[in-house]
Structures are given as structure tokens and as C-alpha cells.
């Protein structure tokens, strides 16, 4: 990647040079955005690249589908439809992840100061407002990983602004860690319990029965690998069907189930809705 930034109408040589070095490219129009999908691909009519999450089966000859249109094929880049796009383009973009690169996009001086104190030195490219720090290696992209900093790698595009300065280094763990989020805090919610039935005495002979049932319910939710919403609802339904009318189920017991469900990614509202729906289904 050695070509300088082009002026409008002269992007094709840069694009071909980048592609020859293994960097997938695409044209950007004014506003630093990709060219829109053609009529054949509008609303995913072509069946490919749904929501731009995968390259898909689409073989449209125009630069459709945002980052997923990026290519290193010179016959596509130099084709008639792409030539027209290059003539109207305001910039060349590339797919960093497709070139096994990660761009830390720093938007302001504070972000640059943070990077210089926190991240290993690497290839640096000046941008309009800040800098691109480019590392060798790919990772998921993410916006706003900290104030003024985005990660552009897989399923994203970055503007080509020249080779910059410095030696590109391997993608460090400190950058990978920027997109790792800790577990969401568990939010307490008001838990409505069914009215006690009979004289309020639990018909179960020992509290161990309830404890075993709650432990099994917690395990069922914790071990769920898919359909988390449905698993939480079915588990709440099972617990309420056995213990919901006898009076032995307390708010603390229900809160245990809510805590496990929220640790799996359920929101407090979804937990409350699942609990209420289970009670309704059981006529409580």
C-alpha cells in the first residue's frame, strides 16, 4: 500500500495498486459512504449479503453491498460499472479484515493521547480529525470502544488515506480487549408472587424439594446455548407450576432465577415479562 491519496476521478490507479497487494477495495461517494445497491439488489432482492453481514452469493457487477463489495479482482475493479463509480467517487475505501488488518480509528486529540499511552506503536495514518493506527491481524469491528475510538476490521470499511508512517505491528491483546464487555449488571425488579393457596402451608415435606427444583432451574438456564428467551419462560413456568400456589416460593427464590437469566443476557424487563406470562398461563 504505497499510493498517495487521489483526487476525485483519479482513484482507479490507487484501487488497482491496493488490490494487487491483496487489499480488497471499494469506491466511496461523497460523505464517505458506499454506493447504494442497484435495483436488482435493493432490499436484498438478490438474496446475497443480507444486512451486509456476509459476502453472500450475489454476483452483481456493480459496487453494491457496502464493505462486502470490496474486491481484489482487477477485472471487477476495472469493469465498466466500477469505472463509472470510480469517476464519481470521492475516496477509495478498503476492507481491513479482508486484508487481515485492524484499524483503530482515533477521532480526536484526546483519543490519540490515550492511544500513545496505552497501545503499542504501529503504522499510523493521519486523518481529517485524528489518526488511523493499523495493526496486522483481524478482529470483529466495533464502534465507540472508548471515547473517540472505533475498531474497523471485519465487516467494515476504512478510507485509504495513504501509507502513513511507522512499522505495522501484530494486533495486540490490548486492542482485542477493547471490544470485550463484562457481564451486564443485574438490575433488581419487583417480583409479583402468586397469592398463597389454602392455609399457606407448603405440602412439600422438606425445603430440600424446593431447593433442588431451584437448582435444576438455574442449571437449565445457565446451560442454554440458544433460544434463551424461550428457555427462561419455560423454566419460570415449570417452577411456578410446582411451587407457585403452595406458598413456599419467596421473592428471594424468584430473584435467584432472575439473576441467572440476566447473566445469560436477558434484560430485567424480559425477565419480568416472562414471569408475568408464566403466571397468566397458569391462571395465577
Strands, helices and their partners?
Elements: H1 12-20, E1 25-29, E2 33-34, H2 74-77, H3 80-88, E3 91-94, E4 101-106, H4 109-118, E5 123-126, E6 131-136, E7 142-146, E8 149-152, E9 158-159, E10 169-170, H5 173-176, H6 207-222, H7 228-243, H8 251-263, H9 268-281
Parallel strand pairs: 6-10
Antiparallel strand pairs: 1-2, 1-3, 3-9, 4-6, 4-8, 5-6, 7-8
Helix pairs in contact: 6-7, 6-8, 7-9
User: Helix and strand string, N-terminal first?
Assistant: HEEHHEEHEEEEEEHHHHH
Terminal Cα span: 67 Å
Structural class: alpha+beta
Please count the beta strands (DSSP E, at least 2 residues each): 10
How much helical structure, as a percent, in the residues?
25-40%
Rg, nearest Å: 27 Å
Task: Offer a few descriptive terms.
9 helices, disordered N terminus, 4-stranded antiparallel β-sheet, 284 residues, alpha+beta
Amino acid at each position: 500500500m504505497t499510493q498517495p491519496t487521489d483526487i476525485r476521478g483519479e482513484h482507479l490507479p490507487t484501487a488497482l495498486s491496493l488490490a494487487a497487494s491483496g487489499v480488497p477495495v471499494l469506491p466511496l461517494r461523497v460523505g464517505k459512504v458506499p454506493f447504494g445497491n442497484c435495483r436488482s439488489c435493493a432490499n436484498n432482492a438478490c438474496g446475497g449479503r443480507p444486512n451486509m453481514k456476509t459476502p453472500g452469493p450475489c454476483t452483481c457487477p456493480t459496487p453494491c453491498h457496502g464493505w462486502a463489495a470490496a474486491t481484489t479482482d482487477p477485472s471487477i475493479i476495472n469493469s465498466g460499472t466500477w469505472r463509472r463509480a470510480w469517476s464519481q467517487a470521492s475516496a477509495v475505501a478498503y476492507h481491513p479484515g479482508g486484508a487481515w488488518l485492524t484499524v483503530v480509528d482515533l477521532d480526536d486529540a484526546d483519543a490519540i493521547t490515550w492511544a500513545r499511552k496505552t497501545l503499542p506503536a504501529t503504522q499510523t495514518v493521519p486523518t481529517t480529525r485524528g489518526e488511523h493506527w493499523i495493526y496486522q491481524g483481524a478482529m470483529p469491528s466495533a464502534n465507540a470502544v472508548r471515547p473517540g475510538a472505533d475498531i474497523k476490521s471485519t465487516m467494515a470499511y476504512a478510507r485509504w488515506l495513504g501509507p502513513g508512517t511507522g512499522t505495522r505491528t501484530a494486533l495486540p491483546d490490548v486492542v482485542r480487549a477493547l471490544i470485550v464487555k463484562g457481564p451486564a449488571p443485574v438490575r433488581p425488579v419487583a417480583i409479583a408472587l402468586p397469592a398463597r393457596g389454602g392455609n399457606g402451608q407448603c405440602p412439600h415435606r422438606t425445603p430440600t424439594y424446593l431447593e433442588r427444583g431451584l437448582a435444576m432451574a438455574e442449571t437449565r438456564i445457565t446451560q442454554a446455548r440458544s433460544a434463551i428467551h424461550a428457555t427462561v419462560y419455560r423454566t419460570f413456568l415449570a417452577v411456578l407450576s410446582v411451587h407457585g400456589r403452595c406458598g413456599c416460593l419467596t421473592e428471594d427464590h424468584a430473584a435467584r432465577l432472575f439473576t441467572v437469566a440476566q447473566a445469560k443476557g436477558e434484560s430485567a424487563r424480559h425477565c419480568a415479562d416472562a414471569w408475568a406470562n408464566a403466571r397468566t398461563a397458569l391462571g395465577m
